[in-house]
Amino acid sequence: MSISDMIKMALRNLWKRKLRTFLTILGVVIGTASIVVMVSIGIGMNESFQKQVEQWGSLQVINVYTTGNNDYYYDDSNSINNNNKKEATEITVSTIEEFKKIPHVETATPVINEYMYFIAGKYVADASIQGIDPASMEAMGYKAEQGRVLQEGDNKTLVFGNDVISNFYNPKLSWRMRYNSPAPEVDIFNDKIMVTTDYNYGTKYADKAIKPIKVEVVGTLSSGGSDSYTVFMPIKELEKIKIAQSEYEAKRNGNRNTQKIKKGVYQSAMVKVDNMDNVKEVQENIKNMGFRASSLTDELETMKETTKMLRMMLGAIGAISLIVAAIGITNTMVMAIYERTREIGVMKVIGASLSDIKKLFLTEAAFIGFAGGLAGILLSLGASKIVNVFALRTNSNMLSSIPFWLCGASLIFATFIGIAAGYLPAKRAMKLSALSAIKTE
Q1: Taking each helix axis from N to C terminus, what angle separates 3-16 and 18-54, rounded to the nearest 10 degrees?
Q2: Which H or E element spans position 234?
């Protein structure tokens, strides 16, 4: 029997019993739609978590910290702190080069974090400033909304987080007047911008010995991100400012209870990995080098773990629906054998092989699974949109996402379920005696 003849005969047999075929396919439709929607909710939750975490920063960046006493500063006085000082790993320029040699690492940079004041005419703004290697900023994934990011060769240059600009105020005004006054218009690209470590700049308590440093703003980052309230500066320039401030404080305090900065030893570092899937591996390598390492993928994995049981339950509910549909297919095919016993006998008498009979019933079962799977996918696409509308209105993380691979896998799985459900009835049809089958009617 040719393949085309077998397909035509299978479709004709299914069409003869339209209502039974429809009800059986309906069971597969419900089962397929259930499992697709349930799995899609799990996928949607993971994607929602990932988007949420990505707003905090890049999932490919690992933050590295020293261990022990995190000894970025050191005290060269004969204080008791020196006697109790513990051994600690240090992040130096050579350490950064070692990080860059780790497989899957794209770039690495030391990091200095500080809090400083920014001056634009009579206005000031306070914000966190982060010193990084300017050559690595673009590779780290930072993108400028206006202007550009830091580049190799930059010195006294800044890149503003966009939300820092709205923080400028007149320090001579009282807090109430500042609150009630409109935000000042500051053009950070064209106005004269300076930085200072004097927190009282612009007030009567200002320290005139601390001279502001003129800088150039070369770009801004977009609003809303985790770095929108941060200002970026070449690390060597920020290190110079911190060393000068440390020396000034030491002189002012007579070298007592003053922490001096150990040049070339940094608070922390950032390591950029080529792919999110390799973050864990690189993170473990860094830990094996004696450093502490963390990344936003840790937070993402924690969030996924908390909903793992829910996603498993959703998948199980969908699977149960499909199992019920498979039982319906088996029942339909068994009933078909009882009703077509004489037909099977005639097929054997006229020379149909056992394999042809088996293939005929398996083809019918496969058509039921395929048709039900296809209709189930279409139904699940509509149900997914309804779930998303409801989730957006209620600010829920239970979004539904149906990728192309899930549609293809569901269609293949539904067809396979149909074939598997029709296997035993097909074997039963093969074992019928031709003579007994003809005598049945």
Answers
A1: 100
A2: strand 230-234
Among 100, 19, 12, 55, CA closest to 286: 100
Query: Do residues 265 and 91 make contact, with C-beta atoms less than 8 angstroms apart?
Result: yes
Provide the residue type at 275 as one letter.
N
pTM strictly above 0.85: no
DSSP secondary-structure letter at 189? T
Quick: pLDDT tens for 185-244.
Answer: 888 999 999 999 988 888 888 888 888 999 999 999 876 667 888 999 999 999 998 888
Report the candidate in 431, 333, 330 with the shortest Cα–Cα distance to residue 14: 333
Mean pLDDT throughout 320-340?
Answer: 76
Q: Quick one: how many helices (H) and strands (E) in the chain?
A: 13, 12
Cα distances (angstroms) measured from residue 271 to each of 106, 155, 312, 387: 8, 22, 34, 39
Inter-CA distances, 373 with 11, 222, 326, Å: 17, 45, 12
Residue type, 325: A
Mapped onto helix, strand or coil, the DSSP state of residue 124 is: strand
Tokens coding 391 = 């989730």
Q: What is the spatial distance between Cα 342 and Cα 360, in angstroms, rounded to a whole number? A: 15
pLDDT tens string 103-141: 999 999 999 999 999 999 889 999 999 999 999 998 888
DSSP at 259: P
Q: Report the alpha-carbon distance of residue 20 to residue 256 in Å, rounded.
A: 93
Taking each helix axis as running N to C, give the angle between helix 404-431 and helix 18-54, from 0 to 180 degrees, rounded to the nearest 10.
150
Long-range interactions of 68-76: CB distance < 8 A, separation 24+: 70/267, 71/262, 71/265, 72/261, 72/262, 72/265, 72/266, 72/267, 73/259, 73/260, 73/261, 73/262, 74/259, 74/260, 74/262, 75/258, 75/259, 75/260, 76/260
> Do the strands 230-234 and 61-65 form a parallel or antiparallel pair, or are they unpaired?
unpaired
Q: Which residue has the higher pLDDT, 84 or 395?
A: 395
Query: Would you say the C-alpha torsion 394, 395, 396, 402 has a positive or negative sign?
Result: positive
